[in-house]
């Protein structure tokens, strides 16, 4: 009984992991690839996971009681990246270096998304950012449509009661 309580994840950790699963599901929505033309590549998926995580973290930022859940969500994201690298056959000695580069990319994207979203209602910077990141090396003609999708998701998350998010339930807009 004592060991069960000792090793049971804290509620915030469980909620962070639950939210991460929802981020992954949303980032894997077929419409992103089939309708919006996002590249179905390792890099494209990384960009979409990161984008959706950024949107959710932005919504939780500064909310009372959300810091621990946000940290657990970020930790689950990092674990997902690490697991993905290992599944792709990246050796143990290389995982750390690759994770560092992915971490740097994450923080760089965070600053870029914050700047692009701060410039709203002008969607030009967001569209350009999506073209450079999500569509890198691919046809970026659907970047304006992806920008509209991002703004719709951001709006849906903003409308979501904080209590539901803190309970691990994110309501993403239609995909």
Kindly describe this structure.
- This protein is 73% helix and 0% strand.
- It is mostly helical.
- It has one domain.
- The termini are far apart.
Characteristic key phrases:
175 residues, globular, mainly alpha
Concise summary:
The protein has 175 residues and is mainly α.
Tertiary shape: globular
Largest sheet: none
Number-wise, the strands total 0
Poorly predicted sequence stretches spanning 5 or more consecutive residues:
none
Rg, Å, rounded:
17 Å
User: Order of helices and strands, N to C?
Assistant: HHHHHHHHH
Structurally, the number of domains stands at: 1
Distance between the termini: 44 Å
Number of helices: 9
Helix content: over 70%
Mean pLDDT: 91
| Sheet/helix structural class | mainly alpha
Q: How much of the polypeptide forms β-strand, as a percent range?
A: under 5%
What layout of secondary structure does this protein have?
Elements (H helix, E strand, L loop, with lengths): L1 H6 L3 H17 L2 H5 L7 H19 L6 H21 L4 H27 L5 H10 L9 H17 L2 H5 L9
Helix pairs in contact: 2-4, 2-5, 4-5, 4-8, 5-6, 6-7, 7-8
